[in-house]
Amino acid sequence: MAGFRALAAQVRDISRTPAERRQALRKCLERFAPYGHRATWHHLCARAGLSPEDREPDPARLVAALEELEEARAVWLAYEEEFARRRKRQKHFGIRQPTAPDDWHRRTWGGRALLPVDTPDAAPRSPLAAVLRRLISAHQGMEGEAFRRVVVTQG
Asked: Are 20 and 61 in contact (CB under 8 A)?
């Protein structure tokens, strides 16, 4: 099973057909889909000017969608690294459970959507990276459903 970076390379591979490149982008969403697979796919299509049903899309638009996804993934991976460093320090001092600002993180383990949406049209319109930055900031400063309202209404 290919990882995110290998699939991203397939999206950029000019020797592949547009349909193969589209499928590789869809498989990238199996590794990272902040809104859930379907909603993230529709979000990327809308932002890159793709039709979600188009089986032979413009390769340049596929790459644009991939770049937005990669930027968002980089934001999330940076947060994950900081979270791991922080948890290591906390464990060193005997704090075995995540503190309140980080408790939400455990709900994202196992590939769950970071900001699940009910329908594809309900996803924020802002770039994924901007939404994730707001999500991380909101979680670090708020608790409960208040963070979700802030992130979604600003999108």
From this structure: no
The CA radius of gyration of the chain, in Å to the nearest whole number, is 17
Asked whether 40 and 25 are in contact (CB, 8 A), the reply is: no
Q: What are phi and psi of 97, to 5 degrees?
A: -110, 145
What's the pTM? Answer: 0.83
Q: How far is CA 56 from CA 4, 93, 94, in A?
A: 22, 55, 55
For residue 118, what is the enclosing H or E element?
A: none
30-56: pLDDT as tens digits = 999 999 999 999 999 999 999 989 989
The DSSP H or E segment spanning 65 is helix 59-92
Q: Which amino acid is at 67?
A: E
Rounded Cα–Cα distance for residues 47 and 87 (Å) = 35
Tokens representing residue 80 in the block: 């994950």
Instruction: Give yes or no for a contact between 18 and 63, defined as CB atoms under 8 angstroms apart.
Output: no
In degrees rounded to 5, what are phi and psi of residue 92? -60, -35
As to burial, measured by CB atoms within 10 angstroms (0-12 exposed, 13-18 middle, 19+ buried), residue 116 is: middle
Please answer whether residues 132 and 40 qualify as being in contact, where contact means their C-beta atoms are separated by less than 8 angstroms.
no
